[in-house]
């Protein structure tokens, strides 16, 4: 081998190594540039990414989200870079192209080497500056995206196709994906953590809002669960259903410290209604168990019976408002003993039937409370099948005690020293209890003392509506007591609700007069008391002529109706004092009303045929 051959071989070897080094450095520069350019993809909006993907040859971009578009562009560019890098060595080995000519001098080779070594440094510095700008831009856009919510999603939706619209409207998940994509693919860990934290907080807000909405739809809490090892205690009382919760009043009709909480789920599931008499059980706290500070009342964990029957039967009962009302056609006999002239006079002047709506119109100190006691005792004795309820509203405590001791019935009272809200709640719960009994086909008699004071309580307890009548009575305060009195009716399907209420007149209060005038035409029986007769110490101080019952022919036999008609004609010719004196004197001479009517038929001239 000659020196010329050795020199030529050495030059070829140096040329090959130099071209390999240049090719490798060039591929590194291209890879770095591609990576730097991909870092800025996250800062581009969806239409720009779709245009770039179409240029790169990616198909089906209309149905892709932003993250999918970036991944497709990266994959397309990666394949293109791999192809160009693999083709470089093949062309070098084929001898078709070389990076540096073999015939170039040594100075040119050194210059090329310095140029190749400086190029990656410049590219890396440019890529770093571009990456930093992309990071700042991504963070700013992520912050702006968090501030404006889903503004970017709305813009993309307007610019995209229909498929993109469906994709972007899927909810908070799509928004969170887009927010993460806008913050970069991995070069900004702090920005990603911030975005995920904000998205997490936003997601928690959505979850909390959903829980609150589900809680509002499902009612006030779920039912309390009873475990096998729990010790239960039986409870019983009247159910009081309020707006969003219910209680079992265990100490009467007023709220007490031992009331039992009932969830609205249990109320709806078992068809419970206000006024139901329920029995069940509550869980007894274990020894050493700390009571829940937020739970003031013990919840009902088991429901055993409703109104003395099974829970399934209570679901099938009819509604009180859908029952057919009729005129009273079955009489309640009040006559007991010969010396009880009060009930005997009422039987003659104002006969009462099952389902009657009667008013006892009385001035102060006319003996209305005594008349109520006599009526209650007479109903208890002559009509034991009737359920008697005496409701005392805004009365004196000593009268309540006297009524409880003298009447064999259910006495429900709220004395005058209690707030007006207690008066209204007691009256409402009592009448609802009576309705529940009527739904079962029972006959109920409610004695109310007095409806005028109940109207006062509603006037004081109800919020002002802006329409004030004379006497300072609010217009909305007259409806609830009228609803109470209007519940009285005789039911065609069976059962009845009789209400006998007292009404105060001549009290010197314009408000009492307004309340009485509101109820004056609602009753179908009226017993009027006279103060002047009471001042003469004549009891019962009944004004005979204005007292009476509508449709009394349905309660009396034809013969009895004719005799009573003759008696009323005789008494109508006298004044109120003479009429009651004559009637009382004749009743004292007989032992029963039947004997008295026979005597009237024999001694009174005229008959019904003469009319």
UniProtKB/TrEMBL annotation:
Signal peptide boundaries: none
Any one GO molecular function term: RNA binding
Domain Rho RNA-BD: 232-310
CDD domains membership: rho_factor_C
Binding site for ATP: 353-358, 365-370, 396
Bias type Basic and acidic residues, positions: 119-128, 190-199
EC number annotated for this UniProt entry: 3.6.4.-
Enzyme class: hydrolase
Compositionally skewed regions (Polar residues) per UniProt: 78-87
Biased composition annotated in UniProt, kind: Basic residues: 200-215
Record key words, sorted: ATP-binding, Helicase, Hydrolase, Nucleotide-binding, RNA-binding, Transcription, Transcription regulation, Transcription termination
Region annotated Disordered, chain positions: 1-28, 69-226
Keyword RNA-binding tagged: yes
Origin: domain of life: Bacteria
Amino acid composition bias (Low complexity), ranges on this chain: 129-142, 173-188
InterPro entries: AAA+_ATPase (IPR003593), ATPase_F1/V1/A1_a/bsu_nucl-bd (IPR000194), CSD (IPR011129), NA-bd_OB-fold (IPR012340), P-loop_NTPase (IPR027417), Rho-like_N (IPR011112), Rho_factor_ATP-bd (IPR041703), Rho_N_sf (IPR036269)
UniProt xrefs under Gene3D superfamilies: 1.10.720.10, Nucleic acid-binding proteins (2.40.50.140), P-loop containing nucleotide triphosphate hydrolases (3.40.50.300)
GO biological process: DNA-templated transcription termination
Transmembrane parts of this sequence: none
UniProt xrefs under PROSITE patterns: RHO_RNA_BD
NCBIfam families, sorted: PRK09376.1, rho
Function: Facilitates transcription termination by a mechanism that involves Rho binding to the nascent RNA, activation of Rho's RNA-dependent ATPase activity, and release of the mRNA from the DNA template.
Family named by the database record: Belongs to the Rho family.
SUBUNIT field: Homohexamer. The homohexamer assembles into an open ring structure.
Name of the protein: Transcription termination factor Rho
């Amino acid at each position: 081998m000659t020196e010329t051959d050795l020199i030529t071989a050495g030059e070829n070897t140096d040329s090959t190594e130099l071209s390999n080094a240049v090719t490798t450095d060039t591929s590194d520069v291209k890879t770095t540039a591609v990576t730097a350019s991909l870092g800025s993809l996250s800062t581009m909006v969806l239409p720009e990414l779709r245009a770039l993907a179409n240029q790169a040859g990616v198909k089906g971009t209309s149905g892709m989200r932003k993250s999918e578009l970036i991944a497709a562009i990266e994959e397309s560019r990666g394949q293109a870079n791999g192809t160009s890098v693999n083709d470089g060595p093949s062309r070098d080995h084929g001898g078709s192209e070389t990076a540096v000519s073999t015939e170039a001098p040594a100075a040119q080779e050194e210059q090329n080497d310095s140029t190749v070594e400086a190029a990656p440094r410049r590219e890396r510095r440019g890529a770093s500056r571009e990456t930093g700008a992309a990071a700042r831009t991504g963070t700013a856009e992520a912050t702006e995206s968090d501030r404006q919510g889903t503004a970017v999603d709305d813009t993309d939706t307007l610019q995209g196709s229909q498929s993109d619209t469906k994709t972007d409207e899927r909810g908070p998940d799509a928004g969170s994906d887009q927010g993460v994509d806008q913050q970069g693919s991995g070069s900004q860990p702090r920005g990603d953590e911030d975005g995920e934290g904000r998205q997490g907080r936003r997601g928690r807000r959505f979850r909390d809002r959903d829980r609150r909405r589900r809680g509002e739809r499902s009612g006030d809490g779920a039912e309390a669960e009873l475990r096998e090892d729990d010790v239960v205690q039986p409870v019983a009382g009247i159910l009081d259903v309020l707006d969003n919760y219910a209680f079992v009043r265990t100490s009467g009709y007023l709220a007490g410290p031992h009331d039992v909480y009932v969830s609205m789920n249990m109320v709806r599931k078992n068809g419970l209604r206000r006024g139901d008499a329920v029995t069940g059980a509550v869980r007894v706290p274990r020894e050493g168990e700390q009571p829940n500070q937020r739970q003031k009342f013990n919840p009902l964990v088991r429901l055993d019976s409703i109104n003395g029957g099974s829970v399934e039967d209570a679901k099938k009962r009819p509604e009180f408002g859908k029952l057919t009302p009729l005129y009273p056609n079955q009489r309640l006999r009040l006559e007991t003993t010969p010396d009880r002239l009060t009930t005997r006079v009422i039987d003659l002047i104002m006969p009462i039937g099952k389902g009657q709506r009667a008013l006892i119109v009385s001035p102060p100190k006319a003996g209305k409370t005594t008349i109520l006691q006599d009526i209650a005792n007479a109903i208890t004795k002559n009509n034991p099948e009737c359920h008697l309820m005496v409701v005392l509203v805004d009365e004196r405590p000593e009268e309540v005690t006297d009524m409880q001791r003298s009447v064999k019935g259910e006495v429900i009272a709220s004395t005058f020293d209690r707030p007006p809200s207690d008066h209204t709640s007691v009256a409402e719960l009592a009448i609802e209890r009576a309705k529940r009994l009527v739904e079962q086909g029972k006959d109920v008699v409610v004695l109310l003392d007095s409806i005028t004071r109940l109207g006062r309580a509603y006037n004081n307890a109800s919020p002002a509506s802006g329409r004030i009548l004379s006497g300072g009575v609010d217009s909305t305060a007259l409806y609830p007591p009228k609803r109470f009195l209007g519940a009285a009716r005789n039911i065609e399907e069976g059962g009845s609700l009789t209400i006998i209420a007292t009404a105060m007149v001549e009290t010197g209060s314009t408000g009492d007069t307004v309340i009485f005038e509101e109820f004056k035409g609602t009753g179908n029986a009226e017993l009027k008391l006279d103060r002047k007769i009471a001042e003469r110490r004549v009891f019962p101080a009944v004004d005979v002529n204005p007292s009476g019952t509508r449709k009394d022919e349905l309660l009396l036999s034809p013969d009895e109706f004719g005799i009573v008609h003759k008696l009323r004609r005789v008494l109508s010719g006298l004044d109120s004092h003479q009429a009651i004196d004559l009637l009382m004197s004749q009743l004292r001479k007989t032992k029963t009303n039947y004997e008295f009517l026979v005597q009237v038929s024999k001694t009174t001239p005229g008959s019904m045929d003469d009319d």
